[in-house]
Amino acid sequence: MENNVNPAPVSLPRIGEKAPSFKAVTTQGPINFPGDYEGSWVILFSHPADFTPVCTSEFMTFATLEPKFSELNCKLVGLSVDGLYSHIAWLRTIKEKIEYKGMKDVEVKFPLIEDITMEVAKLYGMIQPGESSTKAVRAVFVIDPKGVIRTVVYYPLSMGRNFDELLRVVQALKAADEFGIATPADWRPGDDVIVPTAGSCGVAKDRMDGKESGVTCHDWFFCTKKISKDDVIKAVTKK
Fold first, then answer.
1. What pLDDT band is residue 1 in, cutting at 50, 70 and 90?
2. CA gap 106, 9 in Å, rounded
3. Which of 15, 38, 147, 221 is deepest in the core (most CB within 10 A)?
4. What are φ and ψ of residue 224, in 5° steps?
5. What is the β-pairing status of strands 215-219 and 222-225?
6. Which residue among 55, 74, 217, 223 is the active-site one?
7. What are the start-end ranges of the E strands in 27-103?
């Protein structure tokens, strides 16, 4: 007899919510998340399995870019449903044997969580039965210094992540917080930023008439201004 019972819905932590708490064992020792990272930005990300090629390329890239994330006061934490000894052996293999896109002798220094029970993966909605019931999808959670989830991105098992985009996400979030602005499509530090919509008709009229210094309005709802790349970089790299 065919089983028509639908799987239980997957719980997904949402933007603006507190990151779910957990304790776990990692390649860098025990972790209490997100409490251990209070005061720092953090990227929590999952990968499907150790000793797989896409994951290997991702970990090499993350480890190579770790200093750039560190400049943004952003720490990295990885997770898969493999065990600790598998993690250690895989990371050793990456360092000793793998060369890819000019990266070699790559040492992964950020923690990689052991999650053989899949408790953390399920807590963060990383197990999605439509993709796999035994492997975590490539989830990314960007969490701010107060432990609040600010960005969530999910990729399928087959597709590696864009790490330039993850750097840009952290830069854009920090710039928005620092300057009280929004960032337009494809924004990079130094590009024009979006000014919040005017709170009154008078302010909107002044903007449209060019009376608000430094602000360019394309229409009443779409105004931009320039913040120099140096000013943005200085603001987002401070601790």
1. very low
2. 39
3. 147
4. -130, 165
5. antiparallel
6. 55
7. 29-33, 41-46, 74-80
- Residues sharing a CB contact under 8 Å with residue 129, sequence separation 6 or more, in sequence order: 7, 10
The answer to whether the bond into 34 is cis (omega within 30° of 0) is yes
Locate 114 and state its tokens: 């052991």
State whether residue 236 is helix, strand or coil.
Answer: helix
The DSSP output letter for 89 is H
Q: Which residues contact 107 (CB under 8 A, 6 or more apart)?
A: 63, 91, 95
* 51-65 per-position pLDDT tens digit: 999 999 999 999 999
Instruction: Give the span between the Cα atoms of 5 and 102, in whole angstroms.
Output: 49
């304790």: which residue's tokens? 23
Give dist(CA 37, CA 35) in Å, integer.
5
pLDDT in tens, 168-183: 999 999 999 999 999 9
**Residue 137 burial (C-beta neighbours within 10 Å; 0-12, 13-18, 19+):** buried
Q: Is the pLDDT of residue 6 over 60?
A: no
Length of the chain: 239
Q: Report the C-alpha gap between 216 and 206 in whole angstroms.
A: 11
* Catalytic (active site) residue 55: yes
Q: Are 70 and 109 in contact (CB under 8 A)?
A: no
What domains does the chain contain, in order, with CATH numbers? Answer: 22-161 (3.40.30.10), 180-237 (3.30.1020.10)
